[in-house]
Amino acid sequence: MSRNTALVLLSLGLVFQMSHGIEVNVTKDDKLCLYANLMLNFTVSYEAADNKSQTTEFELPADAKSIDSKCDTASSILTLKFGEGHSWSVNFTLKDEVYQADVVTFTYNLSDTSVFPNSQSNETITVTEKPQTAQVPMDTCYSCKSKEVIEANKVNMTLWDVLIQAFITDGSKSENITSCAADVPTTHVPTTTVTSTTTVAPVTNTTSTSPPATTTPTPTLPTPQVGKYSLKTDQNGTTCLLANFGVRIGFKQNEKYQEMNFETNGTQSSGFCGTNSSELVLVSDDITIKLTFANDMKKFRLHALNVTAKTSSGVFVEANTNLSLWEAAVGSSYMCNKEQNYTITSLLTIYTFSLQVQPFGVTKDVFSTAEECLGDGESFLVPIAVGVALLVLILIVLLAYFIGRKRNMATGYESF
Ligand SMILES: *[C@@H]1O[C@H](CO)[C@@H](O)[C@H](O)[C@H]1NC(C)=O
Ligand SMILES: *[C@@H]1O[C@H](CO)[C@@H](O)[C@H](O)[C@H]1NC(C)=O
Ligand SMILES: *[C@@H]1O[C@H](CO)[C@@H](O)[C@H](O)[C@H]1NC(C)=O
Ligand SMILES: *[C@@H]1O[C@H](CO)[C@@H](O)[C@H](O)[C@H]1NC(C)=O
Ligand SMILES: *[C@@H]1O[C@H](CO)[C@@H](O)[C@H](O)[C@H]1NC(C)=O
Ligand SMILES: *[C@@H]1O[C@H](CO)[C@@H](O)[C@H](O)[C@H]1NC(C)=O
Ligand SMILES: *[C@@H]1O[C@H](CO)[C@@H](O)[C@H](O)[C@H]1NC(C)=O
Ligand SMILES: *[C@@H]1O[C@H](CO)[C@@H](O)[C@H](O)[C@H]1NC(C)=O
Ligand SMILES: *[C@@H]1O[C@H](CO)[C@@H](O)[C@H](O)[C@H]1NC(C)=O
Ligand SMILES: *[C@@H]1O[C@H](CO)[C@@H](O)[C@H](O)[C@H]1NC(C)=O
Ligand SMILES: *[C@@H]1O[C@H](CO)[C@@H](O)[C@H](O)[C@H]1NC(C)=O
Ligand SMILES: *[C@@H]1O[C@H](CO)[C@@H](O)[C@H](O)[C@H]1NC(C)=O
Questions:
Q1: Of the candidates 114, 145, 183, 369, which lies 20 to 30 Å from 235 by C-alpha distance?
Q2: 273 near 359, Cβ under 8 Å?
């Protein structure tokens, strides 16, 4: 309970400018709870007065201020404001002793002529992006000296010399470092075979030509990369479909269950946008996924899914053309940040990560308001659960009181 009330406590943000990058210390109850030291460049393309697209690059200025940054138990936010109404913020979330940067938001003011000379528009624009950042264990600092680029609509954010620790528990920055993949060349883990955990009895006599079972423990697959896909109405038309997600497939081939991540590298997307149906086809080296969305004018949904996977033992094809997933109102987008699994057929399951799709009614090349899946907005359930628990407690106490009173009266004692 006290932890929950402590959730609401505000925190102070302090910014120091270092000789190198910008350093931010966010405190809560006078204790350091979020630390960041980073270098950041923005590249923004915008329309100049002569209708020509112009690109400008600028650094996060040294005098950026941490305003409204705050730490909670499961989510924290770092917000840096600078110049004439520009701001950059990162949301961190904590789950299962691991934290990550969830959403990066950049707001820029095109009327600031010192940054956007000659801009046609005078609007303030906000872009949000889910970065593909590492999962960082609690009580360690995330370090990334290499450049990481976060690409958003018309904006590239380049970060380097980054040192961040969110969810600091003991008031001081950890000496333990979790480095980004780019800093530490890691061995790429290809598809792995996962031993089936379903109730189907293991088939002991396989006649497949697969190599003798290696006894190496099956490593779990890394979280798949989040791909960003879009379709245009025609060659130089407007964007009509947007889909961002990481996907993993789990399937049973020759009685053997295995999982594969959909690799975004080198993926080709194609498809079409229609009035009552849109289709997105994603082709990677090993997996082809065809997503068909239906639109009944009020709501859209994922109606059909066809997955083709090439494995060492042949081609696996499975489809379901009668689905009703990812439903949301036409004109909005469907979002499910948390990992989600969907049973497509008895042989095929898909797992999605950081999902956001809008197959109809895209305007201005960006996602419309999102309808979130059940569970993403889980935080509001906590107060409800606490309230229910309290109510039950009160009832129990009352009940105990009345029962006790009745007994005492029955035995002739007066308690009050
Ligand atoms: C530039 O944009 C303005 C307003 O959007 C439009 O009226 C004008 O025709 C455009 N000029 C050219 C050369 O496309
Ligand atoms: C960052 O932007 C500044 C200003 O445009 C530029 O001089 C610098 O080279 C950029 N640094 C990187 C790493 O892109
Ligand atoms: C955007 O920039 C203009 C010009 O510098 C300024 O007048 C305006 O207040 C800024 N907008 C915001 C929201 O700060
Ligand atoms: C922004 O531009 C529009 C038209 O281009 C104009 O009507 C409006 O007054 C401008 N707003 C500001 C704050 O300059
Ligand atoms: C962002 O980077 C990508 C890849 O390097 C490039 O194609 C794109 O034009 C860049 N966008 C901006 C606004 O600089
Ligand atoms: C670093 O992590 C290890 C294992 O998690 C822990 O034993 C050690 O105390 C940590 N060191 C510091 C300085 O936090
Ligand atoms: C596997 O099955 C075949 C035919 O069903 C049988 O001849 C063979 O002995 C079995 N092998 C093992 C190891 O059980
Ligand atoms: C659209 O593309 C065609 C050729 O692909 C080109 O000739 C035309 O200028 C483009 N239109 C615009 C508005 O960019
Ligand atoms: C992506 O593919 C290109 C060429 O196919 C390759 O050079 C690059 O290393 C790949 N990147 C990753 C992260 O796998
Ligand atoms: C979808 O559109 C086509 C042609 O536009 C039409 O023939 C068909 O009846 C529509 N289907 C539904 C379910 O509305
Ligand atoms: C799924 O895709 C494969 C390959 O394109 C095709 O052969 C198959 O007919 C499709 N299945 C359905 C139900 O559309
Ligand atoms: C699928 O999701 C449900 C909850 O949405 C979860 O309980 C279950 O463990 C998940 N299954 C797998 C195999 O991840």
A1: 369
A2: yes
Burial class (CB in 10 A: 0-12, 13-18, 19+), 148: middle
For each successive 10 residues of the chain (416 residues), what is the average pLDDT?
Answer: 37 40 90 94 93 92 91 94 94 91 94 92 92 84 90 93 93 88 56 32 35 44 90 82 94 89 88 91 93 93 94 89 92 91 93 94 88 67 62 80 74 52
**340: its two tokens:** 């989600």
Provide the strand spans (E) within 48-154.
53-59, 65-66, 70-71, 75-82, 86-95, 98-109, 124-129, 136-137, 141-144, 148-152
Phi, psi of 336 (to 5 degrees): -145, 100
What pairs with residue 24 in β-bridges? 15, 36
Contacts of 109 (CB under 8 A, 6+ apart): 83, 84, 85, 86, 115, 124
Residue nearest to atom 8 of ligand 8 (CA): 236
65 DSSP β-pair partners: 81
DSSP state of 380: G
115: its two tokens: 């940054």
Q: How far is the CA of 284 from the centre of ligand 9 (A)?
A: 12
Fold entry, domain 3-183: Porin (2.40.160)
The CA distance from 242 to 39, in Å, is 30
Structure pTM?
Answer: 0.46
Evaluate whether 3-183 and 227-372 have a shared fold.
Answer: yes
Domain-by-domain residue ranges, the chain? 3-183, 227-372
The answer to whether the CB of 126 falls within 8 A of the CB of 105 is: yes
Q: Which helix H or strand E contains 178, and what residues bound it?
A: strand 177-179
Residue 176 CA to ligand 6 centre (angstroms): 6
User: Measured between alpha carbons, how far is residue 386 from residues 5, 72, 304, 399 in Å?
Assistant: 11, 17, 40, 20
How far does the centroid of ligand 11 lie from the alpha carbon of residue 339, in Å? Answer: 27
